[in-house]
Amino acid sequence: MPRPLALTLGEPAGIGPDITLSAWLRRAELGLPPFYVVGDPGFLGRLARRLSLAVPIAAVEPEAAMTTFPRALPVVALDHAVSAEPGRPDSSSAPAAIASITRAVADTVAGRAAGVVTNPVAKSVLYRNGFVDPGHTEFLARLAQQVTGEAARAVMMLWSPELAVVPVTIHLPLREVPERLTTELIVETGRITAHDLQHRFAVAQPRLAIAGLNPHAGEAGALGDEDVTVVAPAVARLRAEGITATGPLPADSMFHAAARASYDVALCMYHDQALVPIKTLAFDHAVNVTLGLPFVRTSPDHGTAFDIAGSGRANPSSLVAALRLAARLGAAETA
User: Fold this and answer.
1) How would you label 70-83 residue by residue, b for 16+ Cβ within 10 Å and e otherwise?
2) For the chain, how big is the Rg over CA atoms in Å?
3) Domain range for residue 179?
């Protein structure tokens, strides 16, 4: 039976609510899969009027979202009223964002939704309100464990038709990367990536390109020994497990068109090594996908953009791509 996607509110003062309204308004034109928003219906109605968007809001339960979606934006209401204004987060922001994510995950695990699509959050706002996880990905892994009782190791992948990348280490100061990067971490990340590419993305034999940590992949140790002592052994172990992996490769020559044709995903050693190339190639339509979870989760690959929130200028393209990919992955799970 077809199920809708659960879309989180994100940071209420950011552009997540703006692009949600814009995407629903263009649902027929774009052929969007049905979704419902988890949040405050009154807040979304006020924002629609502010933006002069003819978006009717309907407070529903998830079971009614499919039939409601063609005529109104379905919203599953929470007991968290939002008072934040565009560009100005307030004390309602973090509780509303966290409650929205928590409910969307619970709905998806319970089978009421086909997957979770998360609007952008502002980590600084969450941290000021006692948020303990480094980011969205880690929080989702903890929620998954709470709901299912099984530990989840979440892996962040940025996906686009042009390029898919996985940062092995994510939100770390650059100076900490060499000490936190281990062979085991690379191997575990590679296993999860290969598994989900095969089972959710229907890639029969995923090809992993493993970037080196240092310039020129260390020049055989001349520019640092991590590529010899940490990265190369990880590549060897992945190959021994039957995973197609190459590397360590010089990162500066991995992302031109001919190189990209030789692999399905690039495993990069730190945040910017992965995100700079994909945001250069696919800034408006790249999607953040969390691998390793017992449910589908995607997200737009951009932030809250407080400076343009409430202006009507936010581009919904990445959210549209995230919704489409979540629907595709959710369908693959039930096939």
Assistant:
1) eeebbbbbbebebe
2) 20
3) 155-292
